[in-house]
Every structure is written in structure tokens, then in C-alpha cells.
Input
Amino acid sequence: MKKIKIALLGLGNVGQGVWQILNTNKKQITLNCGYEIEVSKILVQNIEKPRTIEIPKELLTTRIEDILVDDEIKIVIELMGGSNPAMQYMLKAMKCKKHVITANKLVLATQGEELFRTSEEEGVSFYYEASVGGGIPIIREINESLTANKIEQLVGIINGTTNYILTKMTHEGMDFNEALRGAQEMGFAEADPTSDIEGYDAAYKLAIMASLSFGTKIELNCIYREGIRNIKAIDIDYADKFGYVIKLLAIGKNTKDNLELRVHPTMIPKNHPLANVNDSFNAIFIKGNAVGDLMLYGRGAGALPTGSAVVGDLISILRNNTDLSALTSVKNGSSQKKVQTAEENTSGYYVRLNVQDKPGVLGEIATIFGRYDVSILTVTQEVKSEDNVPLVFITHEAQEGNMNKSLKDIQGLSHVNGVENIIRIENFS
Ligand code: NAP
Output
């Protein structure tokens, strides 16, 4: 049996998952790729750190040079996270003619182009299945199985932490802070949860998926991003009454002239398949012009699911599969469509106002919406105290710029105490 030496950069959650899979499924992996895989070096920060799995200590190193100068190491798997030195190490490995695999969405979303270019220049493979959706094989789906399609839409629940929190708020009536604390205790949320809660993590993943699906380079700052911190129990209750659930969605639409890219809390109909994606699960709903509707569902994170995607990449390289590093259209940036600004986007809206219960308020607000072409679908008012009345509107699809102008004027009305929340609605029409 042929042998191949590989190195891991990082032995944290995912690194340990990869080690476990390579050992537990060794026989099957060897049969599937035709090689006996040997992990010959592992880069870590701290060799003495206690690990949950047993690793021969002589494999550990803190010096990247030990890996770079070893010509027998043919494949480097980057599982350190962060921008640098992960990016520099991957570039150096490629320049030493080593194939590279990564799970690093941050680096891919911000500096992916340089990695694709360098891998091409150096004639090595670059694989990154685990960077989006953990164990869900979404990259391979887009780069391989769906290449006969024009992908028109991608709608994903691609952050497990926020999905776990919103599920707890919806099904167990927890408030945001209580659900976040629970997520941290369960290990679903980091001590600093900003990247997840504020939608950055989902935006990185959307940038990767959209650039591959729509054949263009996506600048992160073109993606509208809003997190879930402002979602209150009252919004969850109203969503339920109107037949919706609230999910943090990453939405990519390839319209006739433009691209629409956004990450934000969204009300979706309870009967849509994405509405039933709960806890820390992820799912990506794709609309292709040939395949129609398609949904991928699974574990978006975790040592073994993510390790499964990483080892899948490793086997692909060893089988010498077609280079999936990036489609030619992405490399050439063939579709240079403009990404719409948030103001140009359209969707339905849930608008929760706090008003005083005075005659004429509703009429004044409806007049303002009408002035800016925002058409009201339903309105609900619950009078509990005359001075603080929640007034909730559901609108038909409207342009966000028009919605913003309406809200600015509405805020100026003397009997309106404030705009409490606005949540976009996606009806998948
Ligand atoms: P992690 O648990 O924090 O592990 C990071 C590992 O990298 C540790 O072993 C650490 O060494 C090592 N490391 C960090 N900086 C280093 C440096 N400067 N030099 C040498 N070693 C360094 O991270 P993780 O959760 O496994 O995530 C790894 C990557 O996978 C990230 O890009 C992440 O976004 C991605 N990912 C993770 C998941 C998931 O479920 N966790 C899912 C999908 C994708 P020490 O052990 O010595 O500290």
C-alpha cells in the first residue's frame, strides 16, 4: 500500500476530530483513497497543553519550519483559525509545493483570492469544504453537482449558535440573554460571541458560497449584516401569531441585473423547510434553474462533523479528483454583477411601533407608508396602557429605502413613542 505523509496546523476542536476520524476509520479511508495516511507533524501553540485525545508527543511542534522543510509532507491541513499566521502558513506551504486544506472561513472570505491564485501558480490543490456548513458538503455541491445550473438563490441557516439561541427563545420562551448563557454552557457559543451573534460568521460563509454560486468575487463589506441581539420575546410571539418563525438567514439572490446579499434575522413561514431547522443544526436552501429547490441539512460545527468534511477533502486530493479549488468563473470573475445596496433590497417587513392610544395615529402612519409606496398587509394593536401601545404592521414587499424614509417620518409623529423593531420577512415567492 502506498503511504502519504501529512501535517496538521492546529490540534483544537477540529484538529482532534480529524485525528480521531483518521484513526477510527483508518481501514475504510485507506481503501477509499488508496493510501495509508500518516500524520507526521502537528503544529500547536503549546506542546504541554492537556488534550482530550492521546497524541504521541514527538508529533507536536511549535515551529512551522519543521513542516515546511519536510519534503515528505505532501498535504498540510490548516485548522488554527484566525487570519494570521494561518494565511501566511498556507501560502508558504503552497510555495513548498504542498496541497492545502483549510476550514478557515475568515481567511477564505477575506483573502481567498490570493490563496486560489497561489495554489494555481504553484500547481497544488486547495480545498476548503469545512469552511461553510461544517459537515454539510455544500462546497462540493456548488462546485461539482450543481455546475449545470444557474444558481438563482441561496438561503441558509449557517450559524449554529444563533440558531440554537433563536430555537430556545421560540420553543422555551427564554429571553436572548438566558438563551445565550445556555449556548455558552453547552459549548455552542464562544466566551466572546460577537462574531456569531452579530452575523459576521454567517457573512463570511455567505461570501464564500455566493462567490462560488454566482461566479464572482464578493467583497465582505457589500454584504448587509445585522445580528439577533434586538430580537425580543414579544417579536417571537408576534411572529408566531402571524404564522412565522424568526431565523438568522444568510440570503444570496442572483437577480437579472444585480446580486442581493444579506444576513439578518428574518421571519419565514412556519411551513417552509428552513423553519424546522432547529437547535445548532444548519441548512442551506438552494434554487437552481434546472434542479429547482434543494436543501442540505446537517451539523454545521463540531469536531467530528467538521473533521468529516476535512478528511473528505483529503481523500479527494489523494484520489486526484478534479481540482475543485475554485470554479474558472470565480477565478476569472466572469460575472461582475453589482451587489445591491441595502436601500435597494426588497422584502416584506414586520414593523413594531410603540405609540400612544390617540385617535388618528393609525391613519397618520398609514398615510406615511402610502406616501413611500409601502403597502400594508395587516395591522395589530393591543391596548394595555393608553401611553404605551404596541402597534404592529406586516407589509407587502417594499424597497428598503422606502421603508427607511417611512420610518423616519413616522418617528417624527407626536404620538409615536418609538420604532421598537423591524424584521424582514422572506416568503420565498
Ligand atoms: P481551536 O479549538 O481554537 O484550535 C486551534 C488550534 O490551533 C489549537 O490547537 C492551537 O494550539 C492552534 N494554534 C492557534 N494559533 C496558533 C499559532 N499561532 N501557532 C501554532 N498553533 C496555533 O479552533 P477550532 O474550533 O478547532 O477551529 C479551527 C478552524 O476550523 C477555525 O478556522 C474555525 O473557524 C474552523 N471551523 C471550526 C468549527 C468548529 O466546530 N469548531 C466548524 C467549522 C469550521 P494549542 O492547542 O496549543 O492552543
